[in-house]
Amino acid sequence: MAPLISIRTSNGKLEIVNQLLLPHTTEFIEIDSVEDAHDAIKTMKIRGAPAIASLAALSLSQHIKRGLAVSLSDSPEWLQSQEALKKHIDGILAFLYTARPTAVNLGAATRRLQKTLDSGIAAGKGPHVIAEELVAEANAVADEDVGRNMEMAKWAGEWLWKRVQGYTSAPSSVNVLTVCNTGSLATSGYGTALGMITYLHETGKLQKAYYTQTAPYHQGSRLTALELQTLQIPSVMICDTMVGSLFQHHDIHAVVVGADRIAKNGDTANKIGTYNAAVLAARHKVPFIVVAPISTVDLDIENGTQIPIEQRPALEACLVRGVPYPNNGQADQVQIMITPAGLEGIYNPSFDVTPAELITAIVTEKGVAVKAEGASTFDLSAIVKLL
Ligand code: MRU
């Protein structure tokens, strides 16, 4: 079966799969403006660090293309001068940037587009030329994602494979655990951590992929489950509370996760529950691998304490969504409240930070970074600048 997709552009339309309705309903919704894109990201109809950056960029591209499509004499006011273009695009980029705070990819994409805008202006180019350049750059943000995912997946898969071949009793295939959803739905295609799992499967090196349900949003049980099922990758779902038990009773060769932001020293923000898995992995001497594009590394942040952590609405931790069970042909989804009504005092951070000390390797499209002998942190500035 073909891999799932998060974003599609066809017949001049920009559409996303409404991930709130997966896995039971596949509904494409049209993104017709930058406001629609902002809302879809904020309400998590689309999620996953690279996917939200791609959608933000593509919505800007769509907006500019519409302006460029009208005849010169009818051009919108914002295309009439450099100053007007700058004011207009500055405003859109600032707005898109506020959609979700933790994933650095969104900021990296808006900064990249800002640079295209500002350098076009500094070079004295006309507004139409700069607008064309912005469209090309915005499309590149989305298009580049798939290729680099395949590269990082291969680096990560081969690195793990080489490592386990050095074990006294080398396994003939590996079991890996992942958290959240980092596959095609979270990116423009193939995925990061789930990309590594796919690569291991495609090359005959994977025994089983285990994944946590990832409460409260259930990116694991709703989205990763669907992706692995679609790709026919042998897999096992576990509840978030079962990671310790899994390590005690099963041979798990690695934990592999994605990232929303990686600080200069390697501290990594990812979906809530990642830190728990890292602590348990360290206790059980299971390698802990982070797979993410270089654009996820934020060199402006020294360590994880400076990463802004998004707090989601309390209500989201009180609700589950699904279809009635047993399902007697009622396809309609329902939301069920699992807490007493009016419950107060709910802690609902969307992400946690795994300290670099607990991370064995950080893998990007350019290769594998490990810590220097005896070090408890990474020096990613050296690596990122070298690349
Ligand atoms: O809140 P979400 O679903 O956007 O969180 C997603 C994650 O934490 C992913 O692991 C991360 O964005 C990497 S996706 C390739």
TrEMBL record:
Transmembrane portions of the chain: none
GO biological process: L-methionine salvage from methylthioadenosine
Enzyme Commission number, as recorded: 5.3.1.23
Compartments, as annotated in UniProt: Cytoplasm; Nucleus
Site (Transition state stabilizer): C180
Similarity remark: Belongs to the eIF-2B alpha/beta/delta subunits family. MtnA subfamily.
Name the UniProt record assigns to this protein: Methylthioribose-1-phosphate isomerase
Organism the protein comes from: Agrocybe pediades
Shown residues in whole-protein numbering: 1 to 387 of 662
